[in-house]
Amino acid sequence: MPRSVKAAVQWEIGQKWTVEEVELADPIGDEVLVEVKACGLCHSDDHNITGDAPSAVPVVGGHEASGIVRAIGPAVNRVQVGDRVVLVATPFCGKCAYCATGRGALCDQNAFVMKGHAPEGHYRFTKDGTGIGSYAQVGGFAEWTVMSQTQVIKIDDDIPFEVAAIVACGIATGYGSSVNVAGVRPGDTVVVVGVGGVGVGAVQGAVIAGAASVIAVDPLAPRRDAVMRFGATHAVATLEEAGAILATETRGVMAESVILTASVVPGTLIGMASDLVAKGGKLVVTGVVPWRERNIPINVSAFLMYGRTLGGNVWGFTHTYDDLPRIFKLYRAGRLKIDEMVTRTYPLHEVNEGYADMHAGVNTRGVLVF
Q1: Does 180 lie in the same domain as 67?
Q2: Which of 141, 219, 229, 280 could be bridged to 62 by S-S, CB 3.0 to 4.6 A?
Q3: 36-83: per-residue pLDDT in tens?
Q4: Separation CA 237–CA 7 (nearest Å)
C-alpha cells in the first residue's frame, strides 16, 4: 500500500522547496524502500533554484542520503531488509560496458538520473494523481524513499548516517577529483577552486595522495578559514592570489593539478584557471557548467603545446564497490575528516534555511536529519 510521507518538493524551476505530504509507492522489481535517516544539502539540488542545471520538475530533492532498508522488490539481490545503506546519485548496473570496465560513474543508467521518473516510466512519488520525480532517482529530502538497488549500497554499522550521507556525493566527488581524475601524486602542487563540501573533499584527497602544497581559492572568508583545518597549505580569495603564490613557490612551474569545485563553473573561470596549470598538468572541471555555456576563452595553442589536459568529472569517477569502502577505511583511520565537515544539521522543514547557510558560506556541509 502506498504511504504518506513528508518531503521537500519543488514544483517549478526557481521556486524554493516546500515541505508537504506526498504519496510514496511500494517498491517493485529491483526497487528498495528506505527509511531516510540523513541527507546532505548539496549544491547540485540548488541548481534547480538557480536554473543553472535543473532536473525535471516537479521533484523531491536530495541525492546524497543514507538510511535503513524497510522493504524490497522481488528482483532485489544486493541488499536485504534491515540493512543500513548509503544512497548514491550514480547507478551501478554492473552490466553495461562502462560498469564492466571499472567506469561505473559512466553507467548507461545515468541516462535516466535527471529524468525524475523511474527508467521504466513510473513515478515513485505522487500527489493528487500528479507524478513527482526523485532528484537523481534518489529523492532523499523525504522521510522515506523508493529507488533502484543499483543506487543502494550496504554500509557497516559503525558508520554514522550523517557521514554516510555526505560520502554519497560530496566526499566521493571531491576526493575522487584529486585521487581518481587529477591523479595527484606525492610532491604535487594542487589548486582547488571553491571549497564548499566537494572542494574540501578535493583538498583532503590531494593531501592523502601526498600533495606537498594545496592552495584553496574561495571568495567567502568563512570557507577559507575552515579549509585550513582540512589540510590546505594556503587559502586565498582569488585566482590572481593563487597565481602569485604558484609563481613564487614553484619558480614559475605552476600547479600539476587545478581542480574547479566551485558550484557553478562558467567558461571564463575555466579559461582563467588554465593559466595556473603546469606543463603536462591537468585542469579538472568538477563543478556544474551551465547548460547554456558554449565558449571557453582559452589560448588553445598554448594549452595544447604545453601538454595540458582538460578533464571532466562524474562523481569523482568513484568505483562503487571499491572506492567507497576505501573512503570509509580512511574515515575510520582518522585520515579523512568527515565528522568535522558536518557543520550543522537541520530538520526537514528547515531545508531552505540550510541552503541559505550554504550560500553564506557558514557550512562546509549542512545535513538534514530525520
Answers
A1: no
A2: 141
A3: 999 999 988 888 877 777 788 999 999 999 999 999 999 999 999 999
A4: 37
Q: Which residue has the cell 567567502?
A: 220
Same domain, 100 and 176: no
Which of the residues are catalytic?
42, 44, 47, 63, 169
What is the rounded distance in angstroms from the CA atom of residue 244 to the CA atom of residue 233?
14
Give the H/E segment covering residue 192: strand 189-193
Alpha helices, DSSP H, located in the chain? 43-50, 97-100, 161-166, 172-176, 197-209, 221-227, 239-249, 267-274, 300-305, 323-332, 351-360
133 Cβ contact list (under 8 Å, min separation 6): 55, 56, 57, 58, 59, 60, 115, 116, 117, 123, 125, 139
CB-based contact 180:315 (threshold 8 Å): no
- Is 177 strand, coil or helix? helix
Q: Phi first, then psi: what are they for 23, rounded to 5°?
A: -95, 135
Confidence at 126, pLDDT banded by 50, 70, 90: very high
Identify the DSSP state of 288.
B
Tell me, yes or no, whether 227 and 141 share the same domain: no
Q: Which three cell numbers stand for residue 186?
A: 606525492
In sequence order, what are the beta bridge partners of 192? 216, 259
Tell me the pTM.
0.93
DSSP one-letter string for 249-270: HTTT--EEEEEE--SB--HHHH
Nearest CA to 32 among 74, 63, 2, 60? 74
- Report d(CA 171, CA 367) in Å as an integer: 13
Q: How deeply is 300 buried, as exposed, middle or buried, from its count of CB atoms within 10 A (0-12, 13-18, 19+)?
A: exposed
Q: What is the pLDDT of residues 298-335, one digit of tens each?
A: 999 999 999 999 999 999 999 999 999 999 999 999 99
Q: Tell me: do 36 and 145 sit in the same domain.
A: yes
Contact 135, 295 (CB under 8 A): no
Distance (Å, rounded) from C-alpha 139 to C-alpha 150?
A: 15
156 band by pLDDT with thresholds 50, 70 and 90: very high
Whether residue 142 lies inside any domain: the answer is yes
Q: Which amino acid is at 205?
A: G
Decide if 68 is inside a domain: yes
